[in-house]
Structures are given as C-alpha cells and as structure tokens.
Amino acid sequence: MITIMRTSILLSINGPRTIASYRPLVRGLVKTKTVVGNADWSSTEYNANNAWNVYGGSGVVNNNNNKNNSNIVRPVCALNGEEKVSWIEAYRDCLRGKLSSKECCKYRIGGEEDVLRLALEAHNFTYKPSKSICFCVTRPKLREVFAADFRDRIVHHWICIRLEPLFEQRFVSQGDLSFNCRKGYGVLRAVETAKSHMMEVSANQTRPAYVMKLDLSGFFMSIDKEILWQMLSVFIEQNYFGNDKEILTYLAKTTVMHTPQTLCEKRGDVKLFDRLPANKTLFKAKATIGMPIGNLTSQLFANFYMNEFDNWLNGIMREMGGRYIRFVDDILMIGNDRKKMVKIIPIIRSCITKTLHLKMNDNKFYLQSIGHGVMFLGNVVRPDRIYSNNTLLNHISVKLQETDRYCQTIYQNKNILDSEAYELYKYFRSLNSFMGFMVHNNTFAIRRGYLRKCPYLWKIAYYKKRCDCFAIKRRYKIQTTIKFKRYENRAHYRNRNWEKVRPAFVRSSLLYRWQERAWREFIEKRNLTSRNTDKRRADKCLCP
C-alpha cells in the first residue's frame, strides 16, 4: 500500500484497476515511487504489467510505466477535514485514562500518522483487526478476557461515538430497563432502583410482593453474531443518517463478526484456560457464536442485543402490575402474584431460546418474598435496607490482609523504592474501590472490625471520614520518593553548598521529622565525601 503525505493532506493508493482522476497535490504515482507535485493527473492500466498516467494540465503521457518495470498506477482517495477530525476525536477519547499503559505509550510514538492511516483503511474498506491479548482473571470469578490492540480500540471508540447516543435514545424511550454500560447508570443505581420498585409494588410493604431472579448461562459467549448483525444493520439503516454511514456499517460488521480467538496471544497462567467450562470460553465455541469480554463494543452491542427482549418482558410485567430490571445477564422481576410469575417462566425460556439462542441457568433461579431480600450485584436488597453479601465481604477481607502484609514489608525495610511505592499505590487503589462499593451500604461496623485486624496498615496510611477511603502517608507516596531522588541527583552533580540545594518541601516545618533527619544524614554524607576529595587533591599536590 502506498501512502502520500503532504502537510494536512493524506492520500492512499488503493482500489480497483480502473480509470480515475483527482486534483490533489500529486504529479505521478507508481507502485515503487511516491512523488508530490502541483499538477492535475489521471491514470489507467490494462493489466499488472502495462500502465501509464496522463497529466491533465499538459496532456503529457508518462511512458515509464510499461511491462518492463511492472509499475502500477491506481486511483487515489483523500480524507476531508470532517473525517480527519472524527478519527482524531476517537483517538483522543481512546487515550483518556490510558496514558500510563504500555500499549498506549508504544502507539503514541507514531500515533497521529497511524490514526490517519487507519482512517484511510476504513475509507477504502480494507481495515482488518489486529492481534489481541487473551488472559484469565480469577476475581470475582474465573473469566476469559480479551484485550484488543490499541489500534483496534480506536475503531471501537469511533463506532461507539456514533451508535451510543442512538442506543441511549431507545433505552430511555423504553423506560430505562437496563443499567449496565450506560453513562449515569451502573451498579449503585440498579440496586437503588430495585429497592424503590420493591417499595412501589408492595405499597410501602402493606401488600404481599415477590421478587424473582433469573440468570443467563454464559451470556457473552452465547451471543449469536448473525442475529446481532441482522438487528444492528437494520438499526443503523433506519436511525443513522451521517455521511459516513457506509463506513460505519462496514466497521460495525467487521467488529461484530471478528473472531479474536483465531489470532491472539495468551498471557498469564495458561493453565487457567483449561479450567474454563465450555460455555465460558471462545476457544471452544463456533466462529459465529460469542463476543469477547473486554472490548468496548462487546458491552454496547450486548446491551442492544437484549433490548427487544427487555421491552417484551417489561410489557408482560406491567400488565401484572410488576416491574422489570436487567443488569447484563441478571434479570430481576418484582410482582404481586406469585402463581402468575411462576407460569411465565416457560414462556420466557422458550422466547429467549428461539429468538436470541440463549439459555437460562436453572441453578441460579430464585423466587421469594421481598421480605427475605434478594442477592443482586454483590448486595442483598430488601425494601428497608441494602447490605453487602458474604462473597463481597470475603473478597474485601482477603484484599485487606494482602495489603497489610505488604505494608509490613515496607515498614520493616524502612527505605522505600520507586517500584515499591508504585506497587503500594496499586494496593490502596484496589482497596479504595472496595470501600467505595461498601460505603453506600450499612457496613460501617463491618469495615471498622476488618480494619482493626490490620496493624501495619495504619503505619503506612490513614483513613478519611468514617473509614470511607484510605490515603497513603506522604513519606510513602510516589511523588515524595521521586522528588527526594531528583533532588539527591541534583545535589550529587552540582558542586555547591549542599544546604542551598535543600528543597523547599524539606525545609518546610509542617512536614514530618523523618525528612529533616534524612536530609541531615544526606548532607553529612556529602560533606564527608567532599572533605575526602579535597584531602586527596592536597595529597596529590604535595607529592614530588
């Protein structure tokens, strides 16, 4: 593929072997050369061994393209300003929150040029997904995750920027039945909505009400790509009216029908892949079945895949005076008539099997009075309160013990390295995510009881408010270790009074005493080195 760049115009040679003409800054294009000029041009070819190009301004024919050198002249397409801006926007949206990742740093080396090259591939309908990375996670349960190449993630963001607002309009018009993978929604709002629906159906617990929970078996790995693409193609045709409609259709189909398991690199513990059931992995599924967990488009398309089913089942529950909620593969229904709710189970199973080719997990079926509560998204939801379930509490207990052991290692070593400070930051970042999940429930006594069992955690960090989150002490922060190292290197390479090099953050009387003590030890060490150096110089001068 031949690419021509000049200032803000990017051109590419690709396409069928037919007559074409264009008016960019081009003078002559052959398979082995790239030339930029100011004249109009046109090109044609008979076959792969005989082609020529004609200059429109003068009518001169370039005779260099013949069967002896096998040069080929092909049509050239260019991107307009709007197309470039749209891809740059997707690129910047993909960078958000990922600037420190290894894949992002590698791609940013030539990112601006490759984004326009990627846009041309999409414009010419020649884009193909790259190699993915596959690994397994064990928390909260064993799952298979695919991480797409950073270049492919830009395409995913480009697609979502156009389709997500249209999907959101449909979700809102149908009554906000799904809460996953939507801005402004999520686990907390889904749990609070379930609680409010219990109070509404039971008339503030004055009437009997029941909650029924259903679960889909191997949801992402069981999605039929052909059915998904039929639904998605009709939706794009009827609701999207942009100038890049053909490109969007092509990229959406390429992304949906892509099989990352055929071109991927397995990382981590490879033995974990053997422990996955057949309905939890793409490596044991058909090419037209399953969406990879980890891609942005997989979450968005899976939500759209269940949209019609949500609307149908919500209509049935509304007729019964009940309510309906869904979060990914967890379905929650609340109603007053227990017998009617039991009767619709075979109808639901038949509909979801015939229309979407999905299966219900009979082992996770639950039907009980709302007074007993229901386990939903890591919480036990009741009409009067919400609290965390035992599985979540066990995960938090394990994470606290791991963090406390690492804090003990750092505290006993006294000196902390940059790598250790960064690892400590990751521990507390994960711990704060757990605390942020629990702080919305009635769990203050539980959190306080867990924290009393972590003696070394308080020597490294402190908590804010009422055990809502943790903050690392200044001595063990990444910024402090980097600053101290930077000033130490500066003092080492500058031949001046060490006291003048003393940084402002150490001179401050508001900081900890250990900084003053460490800085004094540093000055004494440098002064001793300086005195020994002067003594060696004097001895050298006195030598005959």
Write the layout of secondary structure elements.
Layout: E1 2-6, E2 9-13, E3 20-22, E4 26-30, E5 33-36, E6 41-47, E7 50-55, E8 61-62, E9 76-78, H1 81-95, H2 102-107, H3 111-123, E10 132-137, E11 143-147, H4 150-173, H5 187-201, E12 210-215, H6 225-239, H7 245-256, E13 264-266, H8 271-274, H9 296-305, H10 307-319, E14 323-327, E15 330-335, H11 338-356, E16 366-369, E17 374-376, E18 379-381, E19 386-388, H12 390-413, H13 418-438, H14 444-451, H15 457-460, E20 461-464, E21 469-472, H16 478-493, H17 498-501, H18 504-507, H19 513-542
Parallel strand pairs: 10-13
Antiparallel strand pairs: 1-2, 2-9, 3-6, 4-5, 6-7, 7-8, 10-11, 12-15, 12-16, 14-15, 17-18, 18-19, 20-21
Describe this structure in words.
The structure is a single chain. Helices cover 47% and strands 17% of the residues. By secondary structure, the chain is α+β, with helices and mostly antiparallel strands. The strands form 7 sheets. The chain has a 4-stranded antiparallel beta sheet, with no helix packed on it. Helix 1 crosses helix 3. The model is unreliable at 1-51, 65-76, 490-512 and 534-544 (pLDDT under 50).
